[in-house]
Amino acid sequence: MSSILRTKKIALVDCNSFYVSCERLFNPKIRKKPVVVLSNNDGCIIARSNEAKALGIKMGEPYFKGKDIIIKNKVEVFSSNYSLYGDLSNFPDQDIEKVGKEIRETVLQWTGIPTSIGIAKTKTLSKIANHIAKKKQSGVTSLIG
Questions:
Q1: Confidence tier at 144 by pLDDT (50, 70, 90)
Q2: CA atoms of 77 and 29, how far apart (whole Å)
Q3: What is the DSSP secondary-structure string of the chain?
Q4: Predicted structure pTM score
Q5: Residues 97-126: pLDDT tens digits?
Q6: How far is CA 35 from CA 9, 61, 88, 101, 111, in A?
Q7: Pairing relation of β-strands 45-48 and 35-38?
């Protein structure tokens, strides 16, 4: 019998060019086009699509330095919209348990594997919440709020 090494695994899900992706969600015409998002007061480039990166537009660069490339290549330019980005990336505390249940149901449906989900502000508290969740029919416990 062979010994199989099993290590703890943590997955981090990072949305690619998140601010650009948010803008594209509501403006499908800019998909596959070079896009940049500017910082407060439109001072610096804070997000770039892959197409904009391929043009050599640099992250954090002041807008005025990249302006010639941007104009020449008809790059779509957006002022940052932090309320939109926040709405798309965060869940209100009162919704977090519902979101946990949706995740649990999706994993079960797609894989057949039952899960329990503990939600809290730290890894340790999440582990405690998970232990409680295992005993609940819903399979989800939130210690938030």
A1: confident
A2: 13
A3: ---------------TTHHHHHHHHH-GGGTTS-EEEE-GGG-BEEEE-HHHHHTTPPTT-BHHHHHHHHHHTT-EEEE--HHHHHHHH---GGGHHHHHHHHHHHHHHHH-----EEE-SSHHHHHHHHHHHTTSSS-EEE---
A4: 0.68
A5: 898 899 899 989 998 888 999 988 888 888
A6: 34, 14, 19, 35, 37
A7: antiparallel
